[in-house]
Structure formats: structure tokens, C-alpha cells
Predict the structure.
Amino acid sequence: MRMTPPDSAGTTTIVPRVETRPDGATTWMRSFEPAMLLWLLLIAILAFLVLSPMLRLVFASFEDRVTGAFTLANYAEAYGRPRYVQALFNSLALGASVAVIATLFAVPIAWAISRTDMPAKGFIRMVVLGAFIMPPYLGAVAWMLLAGPNSGWLNRIWIGLTGAETGLFNIYSFTGLAFVIAVYSYPYIFVFTNAALDLVSSEMEDAANILGAGTWRTTLNITLPLVFPAILGGIIVVFLEAISLFGTPALLALPARFNVVTTQLWQFFEFPVKVETAAAYSMPLLFITIGLFGLQKLILARKGFVALTGKGGERRLIRLGPWRWVMFAYCMFIGALSVFGPVIVLAQAAFARAWGRGFSWANLTLRNFEYLLFEHDSARQSIVNSFTYAGATAFIAIGLALCIAYIVNRRLVPWGGVLAFMCMAPFVIPGIVLAIGFYAAYAPPPLALSGTATIMILAFATRFLPIAYANSAAGIRSINPEMEEAVRILGGGRLLAIRRVVAPLLKKSLVGGWILVFIPATRELSAAIFLAGPHNRVMSVLLYDLSEEGNFEVLSAFGGLLLVATLIVVAIGFRAIGRDFMLRGN
Amino acid sequence: MPWGLVRVCQCLWLVAGLSWAEAATLTPNEAALYEAAKKEGEVTWYVGQFATDVAQQFGKNFTERYPGVKVNVYRATGQVVFQRLSQDMKAGVRQCDLFSSTDIGHSVYLKAQGQYLRYKPENAAGLIPAFQNIDPDGYYHTTQVNTVTILYNTDKVKPEEAPRKWTDLLDPKWKNKISLGHPGFSGTAGTWVLMMRELYGAGYMEKLAKNNPQAGRSLNDTITMLNAAERVVAAGPTATALRSIAKGNPMAIVYPEDGAVLQISVSAIVKDAPHPNAAKLFFEYLLSREHSVALAETYYELLRPDVDPAPGAKPMREFKIVQPTIEAIVKGIPEIKELWRDTIGN
């Protein structure tokens, strides 16, 4: 998911709108009839996608499972057992640990790329992008192969080298879980920090230098504090990602025999299905998310931090001397943890008869792929599902977001802000909570969408609507309304203006937005796992189901297919809109 | 068209899809079901009783035998397929035709709730008597019998050191070395934990927890863990172990002195199944002699007396067996799931 850092220097062309907007009743009337209807339609769609599932969730948490009468019993059940409460604390501890580890990973890389003369920066950026597009649960599978306490590659090497009794690492542990999540979520902090560092001019660093501070002191006392709000924004996103992730904890915490909120939520869906208890239990997740974003806003509102004006100022790279190689080694080390190591072991397992037998010709086979593509009952179907659903999701999300962004930005209707707010609201709803809301609202009759493609696509579209909206809004803002006004002055209608002027100008940013929704939608698991049935399983869900029997070879092969498909899409994105579009700051 | 000609046409039509010999062996009921099933075209099977590849192979075997009727295999652990089915039912969605979990408690419950279609397959009469009439009312019938035994990795454990009975697993020498399935997911793992509680009391799980066992979800996961040498001993599924041994993996089975845990798993057709005739035909097939031959090849316990066991498989009469009653399972599994989560964790 691409995040919008708080300090983005706008690509926007801000034009005073007062002059370009004729006012008066006639304009109102002219834009009224279609626009007002459109507004109603859009608000209805948003109510269906965003409001209704969330309200349903809140109501369900107060409903008796059988009678539907008001009750607090669900809350009593959800928090009445030490085990359940423990899971809540485990999640909070997990979020905090992940945030710390991810910060240690991300900030040095961001600093080195943005401020120093470290070599091979382009390559390091690609590595960070690699960590970004690796689905976290696939990374978890890779780390099971790398750091399984007895059989993992790292432990076998350690035992082989030292003759020790036991391995060094145990991925099936709290630390292991926090580490694996951090390894795949640090790019969020990177994106935020890097974007902010790019805007800091060297003047203040120079001042510190003149006053006698060395490079390290300057960095720690001047540069990093300047971008602290950005780092904090990244940390919050990572914290929330960590506590709302389902796949990685399901793979690692279960064998380690502890619970977090998301795996506990899944348990409430065991027989008898306790949607109501799950709803009650998911409230803290919702409030923590909203609370943290509120906190972030509060901190950012203190303008004291703004040394980032977005204006010139000279930027010079810090010469690190021999230290540049140390920084490079550190970046490569993080790369090894997040991309190189995992990809190597996944590839080995995907082409192996038995991964434990290691690298040898005799162990090499295409059997796993053959099995998945030609024999497995639902693998092919799930691949088709993943990509059609993700495609449909991207079209719906971008289409909707674009309409709303246009209407809001051009102020075609009153109360446009409501629309914008509802588009961004899913941002603060963890995927797993959204899915439970969708399940509660639309799985039962009258809609009875359980197990259908529709519910999956709608849930995905809602989940990724904020990304689509942020993108579309930025795109629309960059188009000066004067051009449309010109069309209208010459007698063209608004639709003509949109078709012939706005759409062509937006093409590039639309493609970018489409891909930015498409990619996370192909690998979404936290929401999909609650909405999948036998016919609408997507790759991520099937991968999770496959992991039940622990068949790592098939699992790796399937993950490889997912990864290759994603890379193709990213490559298309690169061609269409230029490299780095996923890690771009604005 | 005269009646005789219709029959000839029907026969010819069947021949198009089947070999002559097979077409000739269709019983009238079977032929009628096949006709109706072909119109439905598919059957959706929620199954926790067989490993994924095995379940899919069975589906393909069926389609080979009855061309034109496809099997959608939805495979997950016993508790998870039940979870899906109850989600479907709660949401009023009809997707599942034949339901095959590994916890007979599910079937007792679903039958009592009126969620099952009563169907007594003709082929049920051919089962080993002990596996017949599990449900006196004939709603659900035995489709899989499996045992849980002690498994170990022969590269890491010498035969003389291997555990001989379930209580040997409590020996501290197996600390960090045991692999188990999770009763919250696997019905068979649940039956095993239940049996341990029955034999040795709740204290067994507490002591076992001290040995820090690793728990996958499916009981089949124990096989993977042993083959990868992540763990070296396991309470695991005999059939999957035998298949793994046949593939050349370094694994051996100990039939415990205090009894291999036997589990009888049943299937039933769901009421309002979207493809009832295909479901009936598939149900018949799962109890047929032809399918039992395929079962034997995959090392599951034989359901019928008229099929020979696979080479290497030890017939059940040659080792000691323990088995919880249906009543004990219905009452006990929900309890031991809690017991597990309180003692073993998660």
C-alpha cells in the first residue's frame, strides 16, 4: 500500500478558484440536476461499502446471537477469559516490537540513500521495493525454511559450523514473529523518512558542522529530529500493520503456541460462528487505529517541525569516506534478510523434491509447478480469481475515487467533504475488522453474498479505496480547471470536458493508481480469509490453506507464481509511469 | 420412439463415456443417479478426511468413472471444513453437497439440526460390519478409517530408542522434539487428545506441554516436520506416514503398546444440497469396491472386506486399538479443544 507522507511537497498546481468559478443560481442549476443525482448515488455506494459494514459491526457487537436483542454479553465473552485478554496484550507488544525493529532497519537506509554518497543507491532502492512487494505471509514461509529451530538453513549452517546441539534461531517465537513482520513492513517507514529527508536542505547541517559537530552528531541531533514527524507517521503505519496482520501470526504464532488479536478473531469464527463476539473483540483494534491516526494528526498540527518548506535550499550529499561501504554493507544486510535470503530458499524449495535435501541436481524437479498448474483442483482457479478480482477491485476503486475526487475538487456539489471523508475512512479500519463487518452485513440474507466473487471484490474495493482516492485526488488537483472551463465556454458540456481534457491528462496517474490498488489486492489475505468459500478462493487464501499440511515445496512454488505475477505487473507499471512509482513520496 | 430403442440409445450414450464392461456393471440405481448427476454436472465435496492430493485424486477417479460429473474438492482440516459449512449455513448459502469431516460430533450435531439429507447408499451394505450403521437412522456413513500412531525419523532416532507407548512421549528426552496436530483444526488430532485424556487423565496434556511440542494445524503436518527433521517424533496419521515411507522418506511407525487410536470418520449429504444426485452418486462411489482399491493404494484403512491391503500396511487385527465412543467424542472434543488451548497454548 502506498502511503502519503505528511510533508509531501505538492505536485499540485494550485490555482485560485474564485475567479474560475462563476457563481450564482444559473450555474447551480446547470450543474445541479446530474450532479445532485450523482452525489446521491455516490453517497449511497459509499454508505453500502463503508458505512453499512461498520455500523453492522458495531450493532452486531451488542446483539444476542440468537434473538438479536440488545446485550453486553458479547463483550463479557470477548474479554472474559485471560487467554483472550492476553492475546490483546500480545498484539500490542508485537506492534511495539515491530515498530522498533522496523525503524532500526528503515531509518539508516533512508538516511544513507537521501543524504550520503553511499554507492549503488539505485540498487538499494530496488531491494527496498522488493521487500515491499513480497507478500508478508510468503516471507514468513521463507523464514520458516531459513530459521526453523532444527531444520532451518541458518540453523543447520550454525550447527554444521560450531557442532552445537541446537540451532541459534527459532522463528516460531514472539521475537521471530516480530522480526519477520518488521522485515516486510520497514519499507513504510523508509518511504516516509526518505521523502522527508529529500526535502531537508543542507543549511542547518552546515550550521551544525560550523559549530563543530561531526557527521554523526549532526545526523542524530539535527537531521533526524527534523524529519521526526515523518518517521513517526511511518512508525504508526507499521504498528497498525503489525497488529492487524493475519497471515504471518497464523503461520508462526500457532506453532509457537501463542495468540494475537487476529488469530483469536479467527477462532471466534470456529464453530459455533460467533460473529457477534468477534465484532466485540475487534473494537480495540478499531479504536487503537483511529486513536493513533488522531495522535499523528495532533503531532503534525504542531507546525514547529516545519523546516521542510519544499523550497530550494542547497542539498549536498554527506561524504562518508570509508564509512560509505559500511552503510552499503548494512543496507545489503537488510536486503539479505528481506529479499535475497528468502527468495533463494523459496526458489530452492519450489524446485525441490524435498527442500531439506538441499541443493543438488537429483533434488531438482518441476513437479511442484506441474502439480499446481495441471493437477491441483483449485490452484488455477485461484490464480484466475486473484487477478480478476484484483482487476475488478482496481477499476471499481479507481472509478469511484476518481468521480468523487473530481466532484469534490471542482466543488460540483455541496458537502463534498463528506464524500472525501468516507473515501478515506477505510484507512483507519484494519482489513480483518472490515472483513468481519462485511461478513456480518452481507453474508447473511437478503444479500447472501457469502462465498461469492462479489463480496470479495466489494471488500477489496473498500479496503483499497483510500489509496485510490489519495491518488485520484492528487491527479485531479494537478489539472487546472481553466482547461475545462475553456471547453465549456466553447459550448462543450462537462462530460465532453472530462472525456477530452481531463481523462487524457490523467491517464498516467490513473494507471499508477490502478496498479497501486491492483498489487495489494492480488495478495490481500486478512480480509479474504473471512470471506472465502470453496469457489471464490484467491491465491493468498489457498496459500494459507496449503500451509495447513506444511507442504513447503508446493507452498513455495505457489508463492513463486504469485511473486512472478506481481513482478510482471510492477514491471508494466515501471514502463508506463517510470520507476519507483511505488516508493514515490507524494 | 419405441421403448426398446430408447434403451438402446441410452446404452449407446453411456458407452460413449464408459467402457462397455463398466457400463454393463451399472446397477439400475447407479445408472439412474448417473443420468441425473450428469445434468447437475458437478458435486462439491467439503473434505477433511484425506490429504489434499489424495482427496483430489479421488475426485478425479470419480470423474473418470462417471464422465461429465466433476468433483469440486474443498479440502481443509476437519474443524475448518465444519467452520466453513456452518458459516455457509448461517449465511443461508448452499454450496456443499457432500460433507466429510473428521469429527463425528459434527455429523451428530448436523443431523440433530435437520441439516442432513437421509440417504443410505446401496454400497454401505458391503462395508466391514464394524463400520456399518454408525448412524442407526442412516444419515451418515463411514467413508474413512484412520489410526494415529507414533512416528519417528529414522535418521535421527534409533529403533531401540523410539517411544513404545504414548506415555513414553512424556519422557524429558523428547523435549523440543515432538510434533503434533492441533485439535482446534484437525478432528483426528482431537480424537487422539481425547483418547489420551481418557487413558491418562488431563494431566497427560500438562506433562506433554512441558516437553514443548510443536503443533501444526493438520495432523499431516507432523509428516512434513519429521521429514524436514524439524522434529523427530510425532503422534501422526498412519496412512500418510505409510505413503511417505513408500516414497523413501526416513520414517518408521510404532504401533503403540497402549493402543493405536482408531478414528471412524463419516460423510453425509447436506440437506438442500445444490447437486443432490451427483452427491448421492459420489457417496455411492466412496463406498464402492473400486474406491476401496484406491483407498488401499493410499494406505487408508480398508472399509470393505473384499479388498486386499497395500503391501507394507499392517492389517488392523494385528495391533492393539483404542477408540473413544461417539458419545465421548460429541461431549469431549469441545472440552479438549479448550483443554489444549489452556495447557498447550493457542
Q: What stands out?
A: The domain at 86-307+330-351 of chain A is CATH 1.10.3720.10 (MetI-like fold).
